Amino acid sequence: MAHNDGVFDEALDEIGQPPNPIGEPRRRLLDELDESTTDPNKIVNKAPKEQFRLNYLDVGCLVINRMIGTGIFNSPQTVMIGTNSTGISLLLWLFGLFYAMAGAHVYVEYGLNVPRYIIDGVEQSVPRSGGDLNYLQYVFPRPRYRKDTVLLMGCLYGISFICVGNMAGNCIICALRILQAAHPERDNDSSNGEIRGIALGIAFFACFIHAFSRRGGIWLNNILALVKVGILLLIIGAACAVAGGAFHRADTGTAVGNEFGNNTSKATAFGQASDEANGYGQAFLAIIFAFSGFDQPNYVLGEIKRPRKTFPVSMFTSVAIVSLLYVAVNICYMVVVPAELQSDRQVGSVAHQFFKMTFGALSSNEEVTGLRVFNAFLAISSFGNIVVMTYTAARMKQEIAKQGFLPWPKFFAQNKDVSFGRLLQWLQLHRGLKFLKFLSPEQHKERTPVGALVLHMASCVILILVTYPLSAGDAYSLLSGMGAYLINSVFGFFLALGILLLHFRGPPQSDEVTTQHHPAAETKGPPATNWKAMTKGTVRPWLSVASAVIYLIGNGYCVITNWVPPVGKFLVITKTMAWYLTPIISWCIFILGALWYLGFLVRVNRRKRNKNEEFIYERSPEFDWAETGDRDGNYGSEQGGIGKKSGGLILIHETVYLAWRGTEMKVLGEVCQSGNDTVSVASPAPIDEFAGTDFGNVGFNISGVYGR
User: Fold this and answer.
1) Which of 387, 534, 539, 630 could bond 625 through an S-S bridge, CB–CB 3.0 to 4.6 Å?
2) Distance (Å, whole) CA 209 – CA 207
């Protein structure tokens, strides 16, 4: 009965909607039933409706909420320990700004130009969700099982992201900061059981809100992003007040001292700079960690409204805002905290000292108040990271499941409706309740990647429990370090290298895609033969190369220096946990991805040998114009590609078919396609079990599947 209710819910969801602008016929209830239940090999997902797509604010807040985490509060001390120089520390933070802007340019270039298809006779790109997975497979298409089917690079990235691309570390540190904000007198005496229990609760809440209400999760993300910006502005305001002599200690009435002159004097700024190469390496690693997170919109690019306009504007604006705030906040730390305290781990982090000397000075108990404010702000920052990472990482894992190398791909990749809108619809139909327009079911009824959220939650729970023997601080350092090292640095290095390869080696050949509304057509205009021509109107070639080089050097630097043993002050920092754990475990996970790929090849070869079956993988997309004015075929580029003045095509629907079929069907298809007419008329025609679906005639046109 519940199953039938779900089918009729889908029908009610279609009522009152405007007709499809490209004239797509209304899908029947039987089609929906077939797609969702009867064919375990078919994955059918539709893009969000127009009112549910992400706008400029939503996309900007994804970046802001992910970038502003614990790094801006904890990294300044690591930087000062590594450099022992306030001047060099500020210069490194300025270099971090250029690194972030270069990385943002790399992701915008990929997002606007990859993947590429030939549609309506025009080679063009169609922005889609999946981020790094799409880009790495485009640039490194070999080794592979077949063309566009289970690539080595896809397995490397997919398995790595499933293992470490989650919120476990942030959940642990968020739980710790909540306890320390509530009980600052306990310091680090909170039990591991308390911390892990709260961490699991936080992880469950984040997954639940994104499964139950996609729109609610986005609103929560936006609120937290704005709160984080407010926290950084509060720090800047407090520093300005200290500089103006407005902060006075509650116990003595004296003004809080302005340390900017002392911290920026020639002797302090550069006179005692460290000569340890490892220290500078660790310092820049901490800065890169603080600036990471600008890749989040690429994970959900298919859900952005008018992505060719919204995505680059929101990306560059939000990255620039956060980067400038970071530099400003570090200058503010120089106003309040003396240089000798900034590198002293015994008295706490630089941010802790800042809040103690400003807001803590307003209370009679300076230490407790400063610690409470500091931990509260860190808890908010960590929770914001959890919310945004849950939303974006679930979409990434959904795209990974579509590749076909995971078990139960339909469960992990299929969207399901367990939304708040469905509850409102049930109350309206069965209880006769009436709601305001804001609470109308159609405003909140949408499908979410429930299976991918389950996978996301499962990996998070495993990591929280596996790291139980470690302290909360060490567990956070290990888990966040693995994510930053493997996902951001290692694969970031490959992405930057990919841009250079596209420029100097050339891009791979694009495949023609035909759909019901975009049939095969003659090529229009001269074909683009190089990456410069393909990306015309979206990026400047010289800036593309420069950004890729900066991003390549920054990530390569991190990959290499993590293998340099710590010396000097960093020996004390790493004494509770072996320094080499992060890179070793990260590379073990990377190798696991390679073994997974080899295991898949062994499986398909064994199945072909024992059961005479081969693996079929087929995508059937459907596109529509992002803007009404583009439907006249004006692509906005002399080469026939998509220019910056055009909204271009967007993905509105996709069917992924994954199955094992006997190789006899392949032979039959080849015979029929060769024009062999010796088949007897009396011979019964093979039954096409996919007739009437996107895969009709698959038995007679099987080379389109197996030829890849």
Assistant:
1) 630
2) 6
